[in-house]
Design a protein that fits this description.
71% of the residues lie in helices and 0% in strands. With 312 residues, the chain is mainly α. It has a single domain, classed as MetI-like fold, CATH 1.10.3720. It comes from Streptomyces tricolor.
Length: 312
């Protein structure tokens, strides 16, 4: 007959496991977790809390350095939400993110499927397509600003040579600027989508395609019924990473249009930058930054709930 001893806290120790041994294992587990928790608190938790508090304070260049900014309630939030530029920036952010993700994913998936076929110079072409992804975004923005220049740009000169009109104001027309920025960002993001999706396609069992061919399935039916379902986890990762990197883009837009013309390419990222570092209104900049964080958090919640539903 065996007996168990109840500790003072009411817990029953595990049979055959000495208390000091369990304590050492528990301390070892926390020892492995502690660095990650400390890193998250220092580099994510503290800046987030500090940004939220700053949005409720009256910050000027003087009070920013002295750290004695008084609380002003919801004045910063009210000022930002009543600003017409904020509404435009929010809409432009949604359009820019959705357009970029759609273009990058569709073209990247098409290229990934294309490169699964064996043909000469396959590897060389895939390597060349990676170049836009490897170049720093600021450099890409400056280069594309020269290419899209209305008067001296290479693109307009080429269109003029073809007789298609060579005076298109790609970056100076409020109706064209946002579309131009989206197209440039699609060009930059295609390699990332192609590489990740190409890797996912390599994991699709060949036997499934052979069985579909024996059943007489068309190429589109095979893609829709085999490739897409098997590739769904990879597609989810690509879209999530793409959203997180696109919704907060700043340097590309600053290099191309600086948010203009007439705020036509103003996004939440550029508005945060201009409020904080151009107008030195740090409280308003913190408000816009918090809205951007909230959008990302809502997207993350939907993503986690969708994954949980699929896993059931």
């Amino acid at each position: 007959m065996t007996t168990s001893t109840v500790t003072a806290s009411g817990a029953v120790p595990e049979a055959g496991a000495p208390v000091p041994g369990r304590l050492r294992r528990r301390l070892a587990r926390w020892g492995f977790v502690a660095p990650a928790v400390l890193f998250m608190l220092l580099f994510f938790g503290y800046p987030l809390v500090r940004n939220v508090v700053m949005s409720f304070q009256h910050y000027t260049p003087e009070t920013f350095f002295t750290g004695e900014a008084p609380l002003n309630g919801f004045d910063n939030w009210s000022t930002v939400f009543q600003d017409d530029v904020f509404g435009k920036a929010l809409w432009h952010t949604l359009v820019f993110t959705a357009g970029s993700l759609l273009g990058q994913f569709c073209i990247g998936l098409a290229l990934a499927v294309f490169f699964t076929r064996k043909f000469p110079l396959n590897g060389v072409l895939r390597s060349l397509i990676l170049l836009p992804w490897l170049v720093p975004m600021v450099v890409s923005g400056i280069v594309w600003r020269r290419i899209l220049d209305q008067d001296t740009g290479v693109l307009n000169s080429f269109l003029d040579t073809l007789g298609l009109g060579g005076h298109t104001p790609w970056l100076t027309d409020p109706h064209m600027a946002l579309l131009s920025v989206i197209l440039v960002n699609i060009w930059i993001g295609i390699p990332f989508n192609m590489v990740i999706l190409y890797g996912g396609l390599q994991e699709v069992p060949r036997e499934l395609y052979e069985a579909a061919a024996l059943d007489g399935a068309s190429a589109w039916r095979t893609f829709r019924s085999i490739t897409l379902p098997v590739l769904r986890p990879v597609i989810t990762v690509v879209l999530v990473l793409g959203f997180m990197s696109t919704v907060k883009i700043l340097d590309l837009i600053l290099a191309l249009t600086d948010g203009g013309p007439a705020d036509a390419t103003q996004t939440l990222g550029t508005l945060t930058y201009q409020n904080s570092f151009v107008r030195l209104d740090f409280g308003a900049g913190a408000v816009v930054g918090n809205v951007l964080i909230l959008i990302s958090a809502v997207f993350a919640v939907f993503y986690l709930r969708a994954n949980r539903t699929e896993g059931k």
